[in-house]
Amino acid sequence: MEFLTNIFQGMVIEDLFNLGGLAVSFAAVTLALILMSKIDQIQQLKKSLEKLKRAFDELDEQAKLIVKTDLALNKTQEELDKKVASLYTLHKISRLISTTLDEDEIFRRINEQAVSELGFEKGLIIMRGTQEEFSCKVCVGYPESQIENLVNTLRHEAIFSHCLREGRSLSSFNLIAADREKISRLFLVTSFLATPILTQDGISGVLFLGNASGQLALTEGDEELISILANQLGQSLENAKLFEEAFHSKLELESKIHERTKELSNALEEVKRISKMKSEFISAVSHELRTPLTSIKGYASILMAGKVGEIPAAVKERLDKINKHSDSLVKLINDLLDITRIESGKAEMKLEPHHINEIIYSVTDLLQPQLKEKEIQFKTEVSQDLPSVLIDRDQIERVFINLLGNAIKFTPSGGWIKISAVDKADFMEVAIADSGIGISEQDIPKIFEEFYRVDNQFNQTLKGTGLGLSLVKYIVEAHQGKIWVNSQLNKGSVFYFTLPKLKK
Ligand code: ADP
Residue 94 Cα, ligand 1 centroid: separation in angstroms? Predict the structure, then answer.
């Protein structure tokens, strides 16, 4: 300022005029310059403003997007929550129906609460019976009076029958508007779902679920969930049926076993009764026969001894035959009486310790003449230090006499017989082997039967009663032993039997 004041002080008027014009021009230029700068600034501001506006618009867009995304997220979350809840309910109902094997109980467990937890107000389960009849097993949300009507509709309505026959579900979601409205009207619902119940017999029923209020709308996921439930239901019903069948089979089997056991025990009683009757009969007849037979034998002996006078040689010969036949008859009767006595448990075994060697020795001594006569080579293989056996000596001697007698009888001259005894852990095993005619495979099981004699040439000429082996078997069994035979036709036989050892 001081500088400008100095300039003005040094100027004249003209100069001042000139100076005034100059100043105006200067001011105008300055103004113009200022104006230009302002315009420039305004331009800059305008640009900034536009930038800001654009940024603001972008922000607005983003905000809107965020709100939209948030809404979508909330919806998804809601759907997820619903799905989780439905899955939980499905799991709960599935477990409920699969933990019972009673068909009625399965249906009882799909009650109002279960239907409601699945998100429905109404529910029906219609099942097909064995006679193709249909019955309502579960009814929720409908009065009893409507059941028959609803069953008939589900059964006959073409919209249902078509889909269900193919094993497909139908719902207010997948039906055309006209069909949807029709079903809604018939079942008094706004949204619904019907799915077949499949078992091994095919489509056994229908599960129908529906809602009357609009808020409880159906989603695609519901259809899937309810199909899973229907499958589970089918499986549980199948299990219940199988269990029922298995249970009935078991009962049937038990009653059959019971029946058979009863029949068998009756048959056994009958066998026992007949066997007792047989024993009593044999015993009675044998006793009746023995007395006259003793007289016959006695008289024959008196006559033969010449006590009533001399008799001719021919009569003597006949009397001798009478005597021999009487002897075999007495033997037969005695054997029969013994069998019946042992069989009925009347013949008590007098068990005493004995050495088996002694018995073998005394029996072979007894049968020596016959062995010699047939030139049969006889061997024994019995160790001296065998333990004692606990036996009724007389009875076991009869066993040896019978078996050895048979061996001699059925072994042709020049053959061999061998008796051996072995100490087995719990018993003594005796074997009487011969090189005789042997026994065929089909005769082996029969030879221990009473009166059984093998039909062969030997038996046609040899005498016998067919009672020897039966008696032997009874005696061995009365000693808690066993008897069996190994034999081959034309090669020989080995008869084995066991005897109890004396316990130390
Ligand atoms: P029996 O000797 O009186 O005929 P058994 O009861 O003693 O009656 O024998 C039954 C049948 O068994 C005999 O008739 C005979 O056919 C057969 N048998 C028994 N022992 C022998 C043997 N050692 N060799 C071949 N056959 C035998």
Answer: 75
